[in-house]
Structures are given as C-alpha cells and as structure tokens.
Amino acid sequence: MKKLASEQTWFPGDVPGFFGVLHTWGRQLQYHPHIHYVVPGGAFSSNDHSRHPCRKAFYLPVRVAAKLVKHRMYTALKRNGLLSSVDAAAWSQDWNVNSQPAGSGERSIRYLASYVFRTAISDSRIVALEDNHILFRYTDSATGAEKLLRLQACEFIRRFLQHVLPSGFMKIRYYGFLHPSSSIPVALAILLLEARAGIPSRRRMKSKHPSSQNRRCSICDGAISYLFISPVKHAGISPSGFT
Fold first, then answer.
1. Is 20 within 8 Å of 171 (Cβ atoms)?
2. What is the pLDDT of residue 18?
C-alpha cells in the first residue's frame, strides 16, 4: 500500500500515512483474524512537507492493490516455509482488496477504537452461567437481530483464549507519516490537516474563542486576536490566523 500510494500516477506526494488495527474475533467468539486499515486520503511530500490530497472517492486502484497483496502474501509464505499451509487453489483465483471512502472517518475511528483495549467479549453480553454452560448475546451480522448462544464452559474458554495475543504481537501499528520515526513530524501533519479542513486545533485553543486566552505577541507584547483558519500548503506558513 505504501509503495502504491507513493506512485505519482495517483497523486503527488511520497509519504502516505495509515494505521492498522488487528481484530481476531467474530460475534460468536470464533477465530477470524483480519486487519482494518484507516488511510487518510492523500500524502505528504518529503521535499517541502506540503500535503497532496487524492481524488474524491479514490485512493488507489483496487485491482492493482489486490495483485500486489496476493504476490506479497505468496512471497512471504514461501520465504517462511508456510506455503503448503494454504490451499493451492487460492493462488489461481483473483484476490479482492476493499478500499472505499469513509467520509470524515469519525465513524471508522470510533468503530476501531472499541477493539484496541477491549477483550473478545464484555461482561454485559454474558446472560447466564448454569449447568456448566455459558449463555451470551451476540448480534447476527446478516439480519442485525440480537440472538443468544449457549456454549459449554470449556468451549467458551477455548474460544476466548484464541484472542489473547502472543508475546510480541501488536494490536495496532502505524505507518508513513503516522509512524514515530517519520521524516514528517506527526504534530506538523496534524496541523496541516486541521488547517486544510478548517478545524481549530484543540491543542492550541482551549475554548471556541482563542482571543479570550489573552494571547500576547512575543515581540511587541501586544494583544493577539484570532481571525481565521487558513488552508496550509507549506510548512513555512502558519496554519492559523492571528494578528
């Protein structure tokens, strides 16, 4: 994905950024490992730190991405001697990569946030413990209806322990300009994104009216009044308007 995103064919900029969240369980505690990626629509330029947005509702060609993911997976499994663990028919089929716009991304972030520090099942979903069986609620993904599932205690424990990550496994990873070692500081990326979207930074402003914080000029000690949020294209331009 990082390599694809850096191609000038899709949009200028060579430093994309995204993060992935590992999710291992299904609604009935079955083992279903998969990773959700959240990718801001665009990339930064390492030359001038300017941000280049992608086209509306388009990040990169999913068919090209699918072929790349398939090739990388095949190569990684073969390199680690695990190729025989996958049905050979999988390599003769077309793979699918789902990439779609998520609006502001707020709903996606809220959805994934619940998995970062949450276990496979919460206490509130457990209805009863009786006769060496566990009864718990789950939502049917096909109908959206709430249903009950009854499992033997040992089976319930087995399913639950499948989702305890081995030592060294990370539940969330950051890439590109979101990575701590990125050449573009995360703080700068946030300022540029906020400025482009016209969002006052909460780190800089503790209220809706920045002028109420009695800001003073460091040169003349005059009062500073908040005027506007300005779109920023270069790191040398202040992302907010003060005078």
1. no
2. 87
Neighbours of 67 (CB within 10 A): 14
Q: Mark residue 132 as left, alpha or beta (left: phi above 0; alpha: psi -120 to 50; beta: remaining).
A: left
Alpha carbon distance 175, 182 (integer Å): 8
- Average pLDDT of span 71-93: 93
CA distances to 200, 221, 233 from 216, rounded to whole Å, are 19, 5, 26
Percent of the chain with pLDDT over 90: 30
Q: Can you list the alpha helix ranges (DSSP code H) found in 55-198?
A: 62-79, 106-116, 153-161, 186-197
Question: Buried b vs exposed e over 91-109: b needs ≥16 C-beta within 10 Å?
Answer: eeeeeebeeeeeeeeeeee
Is residue 109 within 8 A of residue 172, CB to CB? The reply is: no
State residue 201's pLDDT score.
56
Question: What is the distance in angstroms between the CA of the first residue and the CA of the last residue of the chain?
Answer: 42
**Residue 24 is encoded by which pair of tokens?**
């291992």
- Least Cα distance to 183 among 25, 34, 32, 43 occurs for 43
∠ CA(151), CA(157), CA(163), 5° rounding? 115
Q: What is the DSSP letter of 13?
A: -
Asked whether the beta carbons of 5 and 60 are under 8 A apart, the reply is yes
Query: What distance in Å separates the CA atoms of residue 29 and residue 158, rounded to the nearest whole number?
Result: 9
Q: How far apart are CA 143 and CA 145, in angstroms?
A: 5
